[in-house]
Amino acid sequence: MATPFMLSKDNIELQFATNHVGHFLLTNLLMETIRKTASASRKEGRIVNVSSRRHQFSYLEGIRFAKLSDPSGYNSLSAYGQSKLANILHANEIARQLKEDRVEVTANSVHPGLIATNLFRHYSFVTGSCWSCWEVRHQKCPAGGSNYMLCSIASRSERHERAVFC
User: Fold this and answer.
1) How far, in Å, CA of 140 to CA of 49, rounded?
2) CB distance 112 to 147 below 8 Å
3) Which of 33, 41, 58, 156 could form a disulfide with 82 if both were Cys (CB 3.0 to 4.6 A apart)?
4) By its UniProt entry, which InterPro entries does this protein fall under (predicted)?
5) Mean pLDDT over all residues of the chain?
6) Which residues are catalytic, by number?
């Protein structure tokens, strides 16, 4: 999170490539199998995208598709938010399509909660130290994964379809 501007091998801003494009591609490559498995097993399938409350702090214009390889105007936190906004929009679109096709698979995006990780390693010493003090209050793994695990296993009545769990 909040990395300096870098490009992936595919010439896409690295946070967007890592946090969204790879997951988008994997989900789409598996989609036909997910649909067939849900139908054959007669059990509800699940697709869970891990997002973040940070999506609210994306760029003002939303996802900057035309600037995914352009360093001008780059803001590391907004770029992170942009990648997480893309995860939410992707889950919403998948959910819409599956519902329209009457496929028993739900798609959700989940904020995992505040988890103490090394996501702030690209900050300056002073800012990083402040975040480290603040992180003491955050969940530690494995408790940090509980939100998306709950979304993965909870019954339909225990969760909200097409919801962002924040």
Assistant:
1) 20
2) yes
3) 58
4) NAD(P)-bd_dom_sf, SDR_fam, TIC32
5) 80
6) 74
